[in-house]
Amino acid sequence: MAFAEHLTSPAFKENAKGALADPQLQSALHGVETGVVDRRRATVEKLPEFQALRDSARDIKNHTLAHLDLYLEQFEQKCTAAGGNVHYAVTAEEARALVLDICRKANAKLVTKGKSMVGEEIAINDFLEQNGIAPIETDLGEYLVQIRHELPSHIIMPAIHLTKEQIEADFRRVHTHLPADRNLEEHQTLLTEARTVLRERFLAADVGITGANFLVAETGTSIIVTNEGNGDLTQTLPRVHIVLASIEKVVPTLEDMSQLLRVLARSATAQEMSVYTTLSTGPRRPGDPDGPNEYHVIILDNGRTAMLGGQFREMLRCIRCGACMNHCPVYAAVGGHTYGWVYPGPMGAVLTPSIVGIENAGHLPNASTFCGRCEEVCPVKIPLPKLMRYWREREFEKNLQPATIRNGLAFWAWFAQRPRLYRIATSLAMFGMGLAGKFFGRFRWLPLAGSWTRHRDFPAPHVQTFQAQWKRGVRTR
Amino acid sequence: MNKDATPGPRVGLFVTCLVDLIRPAVGFAAVKLLEDAGCTVEVPSQTCCGQPAFNSGHRATTRAMAEQVIAAFEPYDYIVAPSGSCAGMIKTHYPELFEGDAVWAPRVEKFCAKTYELISFLVDVMKVSKIDAAFDGTVTYHDSCSGLRELGVRAQPRKLLSRVKGLELKEMHDADVCCGFGGTFCVKYPDISNTIVTKKAEHIAATGADTLLAGDMGCLMNMVGKLQRLGKPVHARHIAEVLAGVTAPPIGER
Q1: Measured distance CA(A442)–CA(B213) in Å, rounded
Q2: Domain annotation for chain B: domains and CATH numbers
Q3: Rounded Cα gap, residues A73 and A392, in angstroms
Q4: ipTM exceeding 0.90, yes/no
Q5: B154 touches chain A (CB under 8 A)
Q6: A430: closest chain B residue by CA
Q7: Which of A463, A475, B15, B195 could form a disulfide with A333 if both were Cys (CB 3.0 to 4.6 A apart)?
Q8: Low-confidence residues of chain B: pLDDT under 70
């Protein structure tokens, strides 16, 4: 598998250890936890119909998924009628081959890229480079992770794990053609430098690749929402525009798209609308002042059809806003790279195993406290904890869980299904623990509970269980 | 006290594993609060609601445990638990376990409809608005996730706390953010859990309150265990203890 070199999900625990011990990362993550969450709440509270819009967004996506074949066909038909080319890719390999083929036919040397999570999913940059074509990310965050040879750590804020100091150091390392003594202290000077460097690439690019937030079936249109304007330059200036999308991006109508946009920007960045919302329908028409000569839409499956027919269907409603990870206490503690692949946080914990296999991503759906905050903020109401639990069921069925957890639970469950024995056993155990803890009231260390007592004290139980006291006739205490 | 002539509802107290084994005082506090509200309380023989097995993907085991709970508690007018986590397990997740089962599903639906978390039961069902308790001190209240998000327990505990004489509530920052307990999560990923609970402990300590309250023993044990390890001088109690005027030493103290 081509993604294998980037996949570190099996090492989730080691990744987490590193992340927790990284002071720069911890300081960068603090911003997600505070700023983004508060701003979203304020924006959402200003819109009285927001909760109703979430219901509507869920329904639009459910309806589309129920008729996905029809809407994909309609999209293809309308897009083709507008002069575009629609390609289907069952696997990541097929999608990469399609991109390369289009680039080769265009005799491309330089490719500019707008932000695309499908692009990350199929690892298109590495593949183009291996084939002698230079891809340049033009979204600032994506550009930063590209020059660091990293994966994005967040689906809409790819470089959220970096501090300003790290970015300054990277610019000095990579932009060697600029004076070494230049001032890069301010955010603004960093931005200006990125803009200057990228502007040259926009003008020189042969092919522009963007993602798609939505594909509209009734018009054959692809839509991107951005804040930097880089997506527009990426898709308008080069001779060829390639849209990387996946099957669940299609929606029936422009009206549906407009409704989804209302929940998307608010959930993602706490904006009412993103700065740019760009609709593309086919290539440049006669008389158009600009635009590409060729317009291609590559629609990727990569495991999604299988999800459509199974327990994880609801995950296909996801509109990639990132609210689930912004509100996740585990994400806030360990950051996106710990999850070990393209999609982090709660949505990644459900989606990643669907794409790379649960045997490669078993930690992801387990590393959740099931606090439910992700589901609470999800603009399309995906029951993320429930879907993570489904993965845990699969792991149990396939015997993939750690033996300690599996056996410990089986032991507990065996007793719990024998109430008399349970009462006797727990009474004895609590009597022992209660006596042992009588002096200090709590334990700093307990046998078999090192995972707990390494970080916290454990309260000593009362010497008699509630049920034992109740049975003896004790009624108050 | 309910002064009506008609006898109050018969409540089966689902005491929960952690209250049963670690902190019986919470069970007795629940009994007092329910009786004060006019209920007759009984405690049928019980073990676990099955949540640890459910969240670990052991569905068949969970279902067997759920059947046991339903059989034991079905005769009561209400099933009440001093925990949003266990009540949430029953009320929102038992139906999933019996989905499509023509015999069990209707039975489970009725069962879940009469299952409640203690504090919300007192306020929403028994319409309790007076609390005969005093507490000399400041408290801060943590919203446990399952109670908050699965059962909508948020205003009810604050309403009852405001009726306790002498008690002052100081809200902490991010009171509705997970404490990092997560059941088996805290032992499967102890380092991540530790980072989350450390932040929580800092928010608790920053309020200056002398007692931490919550409605779930799991969260409380996690938070107070961390506070004590960090040497923060904050006591911890289940909210029912304060509402019932329990004077036993706080959790983890003698």
Answers
A1: 18
A2: 10-124 (no CATH), 130-243 (3.40.50.11810)
A3: 35
A4: yes
A5: no
A6: B21
A7: B195
A8: 1-5
